[in-house]
Amino acid sequence: MTYCIDFPDSSTAVEWSLTDSGVTRKEVTYHPRFYVATEGGSLAEIAESIAVHPEVTAVSQERHRPGWRHDETAMLAIEVSTLGSIPRLASTIADVGRPGTYRCFNVDLSREFRYCLEAGTDPTPDRAPTVMELDTPPITKSGGIESMTVTTPGGETHCLERSPSTIVRQVERLIEETDPDVLHVSSAQVIPELFDAAEGTLRLGREPGYTQLATASTYESYGQIGHSPARYNVPGRVVADAANSFFLTETNLHGILDLVERSQKPLQEAAWASIGNILTAIQIREALAQDVLVPWRAWRPEFFKTAATLDAADRGGYTFSPDVGVHEDVYEVDFSSLYPNIMCTRNISPETVCCDCHPEREDVPGLGYSICPEPGYLPDVLRPLIDDRDEIKRRIREGDGDVDELEGASAAIKWILVSCFGYQGFSNAKFGRIECHEAINAFAREIILDAKATFEEHGWRVVHGIVDSLWVTPMDGREQTDLETVIRAISDTAEIELEYEATYDWIAFCPRRNDSVGALTRYFGKRAGAPADQASSYKRRGIEARQRSTPPFIVDAQLTLMKEFGRTRSPEAVCERLREFIERLQVGEIEPSRLAITNRVSKRVDEYTQTTKNVAALERASDQGLATHPGQDVAYVVVDDETSGRERVALVHEEPSEYDTVFYRNQLCRAAESVLAPVGFRRSDIEAQLSERVDGSVSAYST
């Protein structure tokens, strides 16, 4: 099967396919196409005017469905000479007449995905692709590549140094010897850097040269700033950029290959694609299978709603305020893929919610929206994903198959299922509708409240609940119905499996940092029967040990304090262990790299108005020619928090030899407070406990 496609010129596509004996190359003539439909306009006039355009190779009339609840209608199929001409011509046509007179379809598909759809080509490789990893330290603007670690498909590691020109030839030699199918790079910037450093021609692909597919860009998503690095292509090989791949970070190559098969997006595009991009591709496959074309711009306005309906609809899932404190014998249960299963069991789809054919129905609790009984397309998209993940999870439990492969596929599907709900409320979703988003939330609230009532009816107290998860413990003075029996009853009523997740010997729910109200997503606990000395035995959410910015040393310290708390339940004992970490810090025992803070920056360095540690790190990076864009990470060690400017921190790759003990002592105490706050022991109590014993050793004065 074809595993990547190159486009060497405007009318040619080259298919590269993996075989047991190597790789095959097939060159074909290719002209992409898009479609135009009209309401009140003239397709004949558009056809006559567009046919003479130099970038148009053919115009014909076909019949397709412009939407799920639409019959086939006449459309223009416009074939063009280059991929880049499609959005230009579509914009010209869409601007003719009144807004909405002409609508364009199949316009903004990614190039390899488009080719596979139009040519009927399956991009799933017949065999597992071989991978070469190219790992480089940060590349400065002027210094080029100074070193590189190359791991060949056979697992051999080569540390390359000396001059950039020497490294280039060593990389070329290793690629020629091992012939990898995938170049897994730590940053795609390594591609142009290698070509710039080459003295003469260079072959990183199976043919000479490289292509820049996209420039770097900064974007905002759900209030977070992200950065998408520039993307590059080399002929005949996939470039998988670790710095620009969510799925490489959250799954593995096996997981991405599973998504390739489901979405028909070739491996290189699937590697850099977002969750929503993959979900949309799966939806597009389902749409085209039913001869529904892909709208260019969403044309689905929100229905008129009364103020009362808006108030009822504009809410998320239900959450219960956690019972702050430490609880014994707690059971965690989760609804399996709650939101995707709601869509499937309640037939929620853009064309079924608030349908015109059943206006009298009131199916959505609290909102009164109707849901058409005719099967919706969205459940058809999601049901295979849900069923397949359930089967994969069963195989993992039973040890049936390669664990790495199964876990990669399970994680990849999980992220698609997690996003499918939110994507219904995304204004630019190809197949979304805000009323679907609202209906899903309404059903979720009803399901979780019914589950709570059922647990309480059978002698179980809910100590916390978040949207699809509940933590329950036996009620004092009440007889409990067997938990499995209660779970089965709730599952049958909801038509969605409520699954046992874990049992905890104890679990602690934290208050918010500045008051006694329970924090929804800050808790930790020890799994029942798990070894008390292993970090994996402790579940933690929201506290420092789960935050990506927390230095490794602080993470290890907090886990140790957590274990001590579980063993003794004594704030005093925890403070004694904390004292040990502080002393290690003060005598300079800690390797500075284990104190590195990793933060994502949201602006360019010149856009900040305050001098923070992040800004100091960005200024140091800029001085060294390192380009750090909004949305990217910066890693640094705090060396003197009392100063201002660049000297406040040192970048990790600078290998600092010192650190600010006062700053990191505060970080340790903050982590300790998270552990002890559930029992009412706050920062002032911790400091008072630490001050009760004075260290009179010589080491105490060494710093």
Automatic annotation (TrEMBL):
Q: Which Pfam families match?
A: DNA_pol_B
Q: Where is this region: Disordered?
A: 124-146
Entry's CDD domains? POLBc_B2
Q: Which reaction does it catalyse?
A: DNA(n) + a 2'-deoxyribonucleoside 5'-triphosphate = DNA(n+1) + diphosphate
**Top-rank taxon:** Archaea
Gene source species:
Halolamina litorea
In this chain the DNA-directed DNA polymerase family B multifunctional domain maps to 314-677
Give GO terms: molecular function aspect only: DNA binding; DNA-directed DNA polymerase activity
- EC number(s) of the enzyme? 2.7.7.7
Q: What class of enzyme is it?
A: transferase
This protein's UniProt keywords: DNA-binding, DNA-directed DNA polymerase, Nucleotidyltransferase, Transferase
Q: Which Gene3D superfamilies match?
A: DNA polymerase family B, C-terminal domain, Helix hairpin bin, Palm domain of DNA polymerase
- Which lineage is the organism of this entry classified under, starting from the top rank? Archaea, Methanobacteriati, Methanobacteriota, Stenosarchaea group, Halobacteria
UniProt-recorded name of the protein:
DNA-directed DNA polymerase
